[in-house]
TrEMBL record:
This is Uncharacterized protein. The chain crosses the membrane at residues 42-70, 82-103, 115-136. Keywords: Membrane, Transmembrane, Transmembrane helix.
Length: 146
């Protein structure tokens, strides 16, 4: 046991054979969730306001975009305090998945321009995929030490 402790410190044990010690790093995503969530909320709100068919649909898209952007801002505040943002990311995944379906199916059926519907559906699906990756990867990178 003493030789292994020495090997962990960097020296070879008496037998001449080095023992490697694995140091596990905490897992996290490459990018913060709020770096994508806040801009996506703006795209969802603006795209919905411009391209959605019907007043209720426009209000729904604006509201969903505002909720996603506010959720991203809340995630940023939570991250700055050192908290866990998984619930914020999960909410974004649910909203973006619903928006992808809504633009792809409901708005397309209501007469939304095909290019706009598919573009908004693709952006929403990509955001949902990022949110799922973000949760699976372990969440936000930790704040850098100053």
């Amino acid at each position: 046991a003493g030789a292994r402790a020495v090997a962990a410190a960097g020296a070879a044990p008496a037998g001449g054979e080095a023992v490697r010690v694995a140091v596990s790093k905490p897992r996290h995503a490459v990018l913060h969730d709020f770096c994508m969530t806040i801009p996506y909320g703006a795209v969802l709100a603006i795209g919905g306001a411009l391209f959605a068919v019907g007043a209720l649909a426009k209000i729904g898209a604006l509201s969903a975009g505002a909720v996603v952007a506010a959720n991203g801002a809340l995630s940023l505040k939570t991250w700055k305090r050192g908290g866990n943002c998984t619930i914020n990311t999960a909410a974004t995944a649910l909203i973006s998945g619903a928006a992808a379906w809504w633009f792809c199916a409901a708005q397309r059926a209501a007469g939304m321009a095909p290019a706009a519907a598919w573009a908004m559906a693709a952006v929403s699906a990509a955001m949902g995929a990022f949110a799922v990756y973000h949760i699976a990867a372990g969440g936000n990178p930790p704040p850098k030490k100053r």
